[in-house]
Design brief:
The chain is mostly helical and about 130 residues long. The chain is about 75% helix and about 0% strand.
Length: about 130
């Protein structure tokens, strides 16, 4: 039987790439998924944002978060949290604060992880 990967398969692989700090492989998989006409999900974007953040690519993480909204996907709290963590690692404290504020503006409740990552980004940026 000829098995074809689906969005869940790609999400799993992208998440694994994030765990082992292989952001380029995660990005390639994301691109391949789109090339196969599969629509990335909120989970796909969140995992890729995490991979980019752990790979010290905060600008890519921020672009992906923006792209999520452009694709009319819910910009989830976990995705914003991953982007804030990417900003923390990249010393982009102003972007982290802006993302944190966007959660409050949209009346979504940031969790303690988001709060701590924002505070840490401010400490590293000071």
């Amino acid at each position: 039987a000829n098995l074809q990967p689906n969005v869940v398969t790609y999400n799993t692989y992208i998440s694994l790439c994030a765990q082992v700090l292989r952001w380029r492989d995660a990005m390639a998989s994301f691109d391949r998924m789109q090339g196969e006409r599969l629509r990335p999900s909120v989970v796909s974007y969140g995992a890729l944002i995490t991979a980019c953040g752990k790979g010290d690519r905060p600008e890519k993480a921020l672009r992906l978060l923006k792209e999520m909204g452009e694709q009319r996907l819910e910009v989830s709290v976990p995705a914003v949290s991953a982007a804030i963590s990417a900003c923390e690692r990249g010393h982009l404290w102003q972007d982290a604060v802006q993302l944190y504020a966007s959660l409050q503006t949209d009346q979504r409740l940031p969790d303690i992880t988001v709060f701590n990552a924002t505070i840490s980004a401010c400490e590293k940026g000071a």
